[in-house]
Amino acid sequence: MTEKHLSGKLHVCGASRFIGETHLPEHLLHIALVYSEYAHAEILSIDSGKAEVVEGFVCCLTSRDIPGENNIAHGNNDLQPLLPDVKVEYYGQPIGVIVAENKLSAEEAARNIQVEYKELEPVLTIEEAVLRGHFYIEPRKIECGNVEKGFADSDYSLSGEFETGAQEHLYLETQRCLAVPDDDGGVTLHSSTQSMSEVQTVAARILGLPTHKVSVDVKRLGGAFGGKEAQATIWASLAALAAFHTQKPVLLCLNRMEDFISTGKRHPFKNKYKIGFNADGKINVYQVELYSNGGAYTDLSIAILERALYHSDHAYYIPNAKFTGYPCRTNLPPNTAFRGFGAPQGIITTEFAIQRVADFLGLDAIEIRKKNCYITGQTTPYGMEVLEPVGREMFDELETLSDYHQLRHEVDTFNKTHKYNKQGIGVIPGKFGISFTAGFLNQGSVLIWIYTDGSISLSHGGIEMGQQVNTKIAQIAANVLGVSINRIRIESANTKRVGNTSPTAASTGSDINGYATLDAATRLKKRLSNQAVKYFLQHDSIVTFPDSVIFRDDKVYSDATKDNSCSFGELVSFAYFNFTDLGAHGYYFTPGITFDHKKGKGKPFYYFVFGASLSVMEIDLLTGEYNLKKVVIVHDASSPLNQEVDSGQIYGAFAQGYGLCTMEELPIDQKGRYLAVTPSTYKIPTISDIPDDFTLKQVTDRRSQASVMGSKAVGEPPLIYGLAPWLAIYDAVRSLNPESNQINLKFPATPEAVLTAVNKLRRNNDSY
Amino acid sequence: MTETTINNEQISLSEADLQTNLLTFLRDNLHLTGAKNGCGIGACGACTVLVDFRPVRSCVVKVESIVGKQVTTIEGLENSDGSLSPVQQAFVDCGAIQCGFCTPGMVLTAHALLLRNPEPTESDITKALRGNICRCTGYRQIISAVQQAATHYKKKESL
After folding, report:
1. pLDDT of A554-575, one tens digit each?
2. Residue at which a domain ends, from A229, A244, A262
3. A717: domain range?
4. Closest-CA residue in chain A for B38?
């Protein structure tokens, strides 16, 4: 199927509407926020006197104005105030809501709010948090085999530390919410959220209302990448609070700088590893301690740490393993979900350890990786059997596509003949577990109505944020009912039509909502098939059976001979007049997902997505700058619902991974303030960072371990391919002195970091 | 009275209009919401409109800068019969759209490139579009879309 983006035409005409772009209600009020000026402080007083005199000022809301429970925490692990009353825990934390008749007045009034603080010492880094024992939970552990024996039996071992940096989501549409009061005391929220039921539940909790008094509607998001999963809730709740108090519609729309300053990022990690291996490159044992910087509130930190642990084996069978994870509490904005959800931070540490093994043994890193890839019959350290492991197959294809040995030769030759530029190759496999690790979230539902003219309305629990879950869902329904996709309208996601939804996250949007669509569409097809039997008997005196009826090309055929048919619309109308329910609810849950955290064992994933990728980087030894020269990706797609859409996901995820490991850097100052707060100081990949020489192969052999209609999830797995450029830079730096074990390349490898690594190596290496 | 032309329509501007930010004017006064506010400092390209067929960051200029000029916003790019223009069609055909937030600015910048250079190399394309950031697509399909659209601009020129 090659259906195009359902909203593609609207987008290219600028006709698609994002929140705040519909014809806004009259008497719309605007919000500006008062933010904490300290990372850690007591609030002594908030004085709104000078704000109240600003023309257009309506009200100033603080924690005292919250009618319900002042808690927006995700889950039951923590308390996170919507507006803190006594203590601020991060720089940029909202402490007051200014409502005014226009945005400029709101902003002016917000500037006039006077807050007195008593500054407290902030904890900003993982090291400080560890020293003070600031952990969210007891360490999480996964163990298998016998680690001590593993090291004793190994010919060699290597150990070290690996740190990864934060990453800003930089969705192009900033966080926003339009809140409209309802006549019964409830409120309708148009929120830019990936998690509408969480927004609904939390806003109701804040307002002290039953959940049904808050409804959430989401048409589309201008990108999210995890940044609007738990972190849209605070903005929606603030807007809800303002609408509740003023009984007028209210718009809250962050500007880019506010969004940068106040929202959480990808978790920085600091990991300590030790790896034991034999002379032939076989890994015997891998031990790693993962420390994540969770920021000021739990948010999704625990689930993120768990995913990092579950991916610390990455694509490799490790008979003896011990993975331990510590989520640290600091005074930064609460770090949160970001495509990959902890997996990249665990994976790059393992891959770096394996790279060092290869370098130590003088073997090609691709050989070590292939040798240790999972094969049939092996289980992960957490006790899940890896079914259909196709890692080696992916590597074989990668070697063929890239002409790997020739490429290696060319790069080596380049390095011998160039003094100031060096090239390197980075190779990384993919093995990404699909399912929410919080097992209960693996459920989806939809609501389909077929109207009497044969047009179809479909509401599902997934949020459209560019990944085209809508296109895929429409394809599935169209396929079952044998109709063209144009007949189906995918409605905005709305808690009134689909309740208790899981966030659109963990790459599962199409899987769980797609299966639920299959369920509902199949129910409708059954009812229509029964009616078709009657229809063909009455109209054509043909005897047929429900199972023989065929739905295809917007027509309904009595049977495979296709002698008798009617239009889909005609059958629907007939069915209606013969008392048929033309609405159906569909439901699905992913079977068999369990995990015992005490034992560190279970089956947290339904299946894995495999792949392999290669990047070639060229670095400039004089400036530290680099160029991505070539990318090859082999991706295990199984039977894709929409190959073009999946290509877009792979290209996009690669670019985000590439940014993460190279140019995207978020330094903080001693006060806990991010220093890069606009796209002019925070660099993400642009079109000129992507090489011409880019090969993507989706392997479309249908797997038995897959999801709806044989497809596999695609949102997060390909982000890992984007980490290959870091390994390629490492390889290029290492070419200066292959014997050195003193290569200190930071992650992200900014040009500055590359230059530092090069200069350090040059100092230690006079022959250069 | 001061005038400008927006999407082939003459618009009269008041003194107050002239001092207004162009993006705000387009979105709030004219309800042309295709140009997006992505960063507000001219660093992302989502607010791009064409002024005399050249891309301009509407979030960092005032309305006075368009007096007597021809402005094209994304809403004015369709063919006169309402069908999609070649760049728009190519973006749809090549899967070059995901969330759609950067799309209007990207499409207009590509259109401006093809007007002045109907046979761009891949490097011409990336040079022209590198000020327009997209967080979704990874850009490969955008490059293909501009290449596909170029064939139409070439044809047009040879006529």
Report:
1. 999 999 988 899 999 999 999 9
2. A262
3. 269-437+597-763
4. A172
CA distance B3 to chain A (A): 24
Residue A503: predicted pLDDT: 98
The answer to whether residue A397 is catalytic is no
Residue A768, pLDDT > 50, answer no
B145 Cβ under 8 Å from any chain A Cβ = no
Helical residues (DSSP H) of A541-585, grouped into ranges: 568-577
Specify the pLDDT at position B158. 59
For chain A, say whether B127 makes contact (Cβ under 8 Å): yes
| pLDDT for res A78 | 82
Domain boundary among B76, B106, B124: B76
ipTM, 2 dp: 0.98
DSSP state of A660: H
Tell me if chain A has a CB within 8 Å of the CB of B120.
no
DSSP letters for A363-422? --HHHHHHHHB--TT-B-TTS-B--S--HHHHHHHHHHHHTHHHHHHHHHHHHHH-SSEE
State whether B135 and A686 contact (CB < 8 Å): no
pLDDT reported for residue A765: 59
Q: Does the CB of A212 have a partner CB in chain B at under 8 Å?
A: no
CATH code of the domain in which B103 resides: 1.10.150.120
> Half-sphere exposure (CA, 13 Å, Cβ side) for A44?
8
- Structural domain contains residue B81: no
Give contacts of A5 with chain B, Cβ < 8 Å: 92, 95, 97-98
Peptide bond before residue A748 is cis, with ω within 30 degrees of 0 = yes
Rg of chain B in Å (alpha carbons): 15
B143 within domain boundaries? yes
Using one digit for the tens of pLDDT, what is the confidence trace for A500-527?
999 999 999 999 999 999 999 999 999 9
Maximal C-alpha separation, chain A: 95
**Domain closes at, from A589, A622, A655:** A589
Task: Please check whether residues B65 and B101 belong to one and the same domain.
Answer: no
B window 25-54, beta carbon within 8 A of A: 27, 31-41, 43-44, 46
Position A764 scores a pLDDT of 67
- In this complex, do B100 and A220 lie within 8 Å of one another by their Cβ atoms? yes
Residue A742 pLDDT: 78
